[in-house]
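Handout for the seminar on molecular recognition.
Each group receives one record of this type.
Step one: identify the two inputs.
Step two: read the structure output and locate the region that could contact flavin-adenine dinucleotide.
Step three: write two sentences on what you found, then compare them with the reference statements printed after the record.
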Amino acid sequence: MFGEEYDVIVVGGGHAGAEAAAAAGNMGSKTLLVTMNLQTIGQMSCNPAMGGIAKGQIVREIDALGGMSGIITDKSAIQFKMLNKSKGPAMWSPRAQSDRMRFAEEWRLALENIPNVDFYQEMVSGLLIENGKAVGVKSSLGIDIRAKSVILTNGTFLNGLIHIGEKQFGGGRAGEKAATGITEQLLQLGFESGRMKTGTPPRVDGRSLDYSVMTPQPGDAIPEKFSYLRTPVLTTQRDCFLTHTSELVHDVLREGFDRSPMFNGRIKSVGPRYCPSIEDKINRFADKNSHQIFVEPEGWDTVEVYVNGFSTSLPEDIQFKALRTVKGFEKVKFFRPGYAIEYDYFPPTQLKHTLETKLVDNLYFAGQINGTTGYEEAASQGLMAGINAHLKVNEKEDFILKRDEAYIGVLIDDLITKGTEEPYRMFTSRAEYRTLLRQDNADLRLTPKGYEIGLAKKERLIRMEEKELKSDSFVNFFRETSVKPEEVNPILDSVNSALVKQSDKMFKVFSRPKVTMDHMLQLEAVSGFVEENNLDREVLEQTEIQVKYSGYIAKEKNNADKLLRLENVKIPANFDYSDLKSLSYEAREKLNAIQPVTIAQAARVSGVNPSDISVLLVYLGR
Ligand code: FAD
């Protein structure tokens, strides 16, 4: 390793770093993963779960492209749920409870299985830069390692500062030291940095809890999984449990407020709005006398339990005393107290769509360093940075996903166009084309692209093509086949839908509200078609969505196509907006800073109005 030159060096083995190294390595780049502790590759810093609303869609997209997070999650899951199943399919979101230790172990094994990936355990304290290009890293022991590109995925480690009550100490996570040197060097190079904050709840001993007074939260009766490949489906699952805080719990917590770093000004940075600490919830929603606590096992075999909903940086004695007043926690024993952490991030408007920095060539940032929060957000950025670093080293075209193609496209475009001043997490509402960006069709949207760039394997493409072919032919079957009133009326009657008087196309009947695939399967012709063509659950689900939501899907596709025209109007690189006096002052300033590459991206920059876009279109001769 010493003296060798790599194609790609990935700094950090968290979710972003692991995906970045896997992508670059699998695509054929000679890759080095340098991380502070090889034992913590793929470590889940906070909750032992992957997916959830909008995040689950991201994991499926990572998988569809040929990334690893979905496979790792399937191999280490202890419970699976499809959230929002009562809503339309655009909202269905897979979520798995993971075995924390196995998740990390599976990541390590997966990376070790990639021959192109080398490992080195040390802290990177700086970058090697020559002529405005990143050419390697410098370790804290003073070792220089050269590479054609560098991806920084430092997570919460850059000048990390941990807070528990009045105590504060340097650290990247509890029990791990903070990383120094990189921020300082990047600032000297002209980068801008900021501080953010996040927090985590205490972990407790499951043997000390009384589950009999809590409500079990089982997984789905028929669990699904994340990967489109043949990964294991759960045959048994572990339950989570639900309990609640009470006025008494809140009163005990309030006793510690004067010692809280959140309230006495010691924590100055902004935390994740949608993952507030328990003290924040009590403070902000003073009228609520109870909050939910989800009691989540940390794995198959361990007794350690994650107390979801009780994130806190109050003094540990207060955390403990308050937790003992929660129903079922009267005899609780602590494994680890909760804490908050402040860390450096780099406003992501300093990046291009490839996640390469605008200031230094061949330097990429991915994950929490870009101001995001969450494993899925981090992993997807790592994947894209790994792909793009590999492509650039090989002088190939950039790989960019558009907003109508993937949540990953929405995420990166939001980050680099709008920036973020608080930890950014994905929501379905951030995507304007969420009917197109469903969890069920990530393979159809992205696997051909993943295959084309050389990441997704042939097996993946074949599976996807087979699914597409079969669901298309099943949809056609519904379009072409008629059904008689005497066959279909019992079904329509059972869902209180108006009866038909003459034969009608099955597609029309199936499109009616409340008529489901299960109903249609009661028709002999339909079940016969399924049997004859050997259609599996995935194909049935895909067909049902294609039939029932065809109108919405077509409308959204149409809207996306219209906008695509603006996506195709390119703005010259390094365009100087200062002289375009018909633009508002704010638009000139923001556009100069962001340097959008297309008119559509310019329209998404905050502070740029439709009138500014008209000016630009006229100027560009459109
Ligand atoms: P990380 O997972 O932090 O990984 C960074 C990696 O880089 C580590 O392996 C580290 O050892 C390595 N590293 C760092 N600097 C160097 C260096 N200089 N040299 C070598 N290696 C280095 N997310 C949520 O969605 N909700 C939450 O409520 C939430 N709470 C959190 C609470 C805490 C206390 C923490 C620490 C994180 C929390 N997160 C939460 C965030 C979640 O853990 C991250 O979003 C996710 O792990 C980010 O992935 P990453 O790969 O960017 O960084």
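Reference statements: The radius of gyration is 26 Å. The mean pLDDT is 95.
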